[in-house]
What does this fold into?
Amino acid sequence: MENISETLGGLIIVGGAVAIVYILARFNYLIRKAAYERGIELSSRQNKYRYVDYGCILLGLGIGLAASSFFTLLDLKEDTMDLLVWATILIFGALGLIATHFIRKTLED
It folds into this structure.
């Protein structure tokens, strides 16, 4: 019975992820189609700094992962250590997003 619930849970998660990707892709397609029919050219400015976004976010996550490895050296309970590791990774990922915002703002001006 436990295997069935784990399998069903996994299928629900994967199905939900597929549904979200489909909905987002379909919405993007419809927006572009409507803009094309009206003769509106979508600006490519959004994609101009795409790699800066990815780079800063990945750099922030990488620094967070490196900083979180410090918590594995401490003598902490497993739950506390897991919480600190994930919190550190997410905090540094958020700092990467903030850095991305300021870098894009500087480059666009």
Observations:
- Helices lie at 2-37, 50-73, 78-108.
